[in-house]
Amino acid sequence: MSEPAPAGRSFAETWRQVAAVDGWLSEEQAQRLYDRAAALPPAANIVEIGSFRGRSAIILASGAPAGAQVLAVDPHLGSDRGPQEIAEDRDLGEEDLREFRANLSRAGVLERVRHVRRRSQEALSEAPASIDLLFVDGAHRYGPARDDLLRWGARVPPGGHMLVHDSFSSVGVTLALLRHVTPSAGWRYTGRSGSLAEFVRAPRSTPSLIAQLGELPWFGRNLIVKALIVCGLGRAARVLGHRDGPWPY
Length: 249
Description:
Helices cover about 35% and strands about 15% of the residues. The protein is α/β, with parallel strands linked by helices and about 250 residues long. The chain has two domains: about 10-215, 3-Layer(aba) Sandwich (Rossmann fold), CATH 3.40.50; about 215-249, no CATH class. Helix 1 runs antiparallel to helix 3, helix 2 runs parallel beside helix 3 and helix 5 (about 140-150) crosses helix 6 (about 170-180).
């Protein structure tokens, strides 16, 4: 087993560690996650919904100060792994779990991350009542995304942050945000890195609402890009500026 990594390891070191780990978190998105974790106090609670093979968990655990708790929630059922991978595949899930643990061990953060192998809505009883930093990257269909945003988001206290992957990229996630977060007076949108949108638990402001609604054209562009890719016209998506891998995220 690898030696534990020092708390507060630099982002550059951390990114070199996770660059080979399977996942969809870009370097820019990882930087945003790392910065939010690094700004937390020592006793903070961090939760991620959706871990896959550990890229985001390593980022969060490496950036977080000593004493912070990182809870990773993922059932590892081989389902909801990525674009067009919805159905369960237990063998694939076991493989993902082995890789998740091995990757955390190699990064030296295995002892800093508590993994709960349950569906997100079944894991609420094992999570802290107050979550200072919540990263949502679970099932992308509307129902599960809505439940994660509402039930887990309710545990973020004033001043806490919620970061949501595949915002303005996935239809289910975007609709859940527009229906349950955008109209909320208690969430303020602070920007995005690609599809990673960030919200702070604070009174909503008019500029933040306008900024969030201003992302809708980018959402429409992503839907067109996805349609082109599904139809085997991925090269045509380059006309819309798509360069970052097989799927817009």
